[in-house]
Amino acid sequence: MSIPVSAATNAYNAVSQIANNAGASAATAAPGAVSGDDFASMLKDAVNQVVETGRASDQVTMSAATGNANIVDVVTAVAESELALETMVAVRDRIISAYESIMRMPI
Fold this sequence. Notes:
- The protein is an all-alpha fold.
- The chain has one domain (5-104).
- Helix content is 82%, strand content 0%.
- It has helices at 5-28, 36-65, 71-104.
- The longest helix is centred in the last third of the chain and has 34 residues, at 71-104.
- The radius of gyration is 18 Å and the shape is elongated.
């Protein structure tokens, strides 16, 4: 499978933006403070971004069906949507793996 450069660039920019937002909120937090809302909001924003990417892909696909969009735009939008979904699935798998590791820890 070949991933277009624009899709990879968009994914990298999205992850960088999420990392920058997380770093900024962590820097403003008090030392030693546990902040569960930051991870939850970051995860919620990432899921919303994946959903929006899927909606944009659907919109471009519908435009192509009516003859208003180029097939290259459709392929690019579908590839971006696929990349975002694969990234979200990888994050989900890592979260589940971390949870299972915590549950296996002796008390």
